[in-house]
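ok so dumb question maybe but i'm new to this and my supervisor (M.) told me to 'just get the structure for Purkinje cell protein 4' and walked off. so i did the thing. is this what she meant?? sequence i used:
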Amino acid sequence: DVGPPGAGLDTPGLSKDPSKKDVPAEDIDIDMGAPETEKAAVAIQSQFRKFQKKKQAVKS
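this is what came out, is it supposed to look like this??
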């Protein structure tokens, strides 16, 4: 018996969240052509760009 997949391959410094143990993968159906989806994508990209600019400003 080998054990569960990934057994013994723990990465040091990373803790496993017991609340996420054995959670089945969800099949999410997103309509990529829907206007709401496009609006959400633009909003997420905008926030990410702001985050990246702020991150670059901190490094400088």
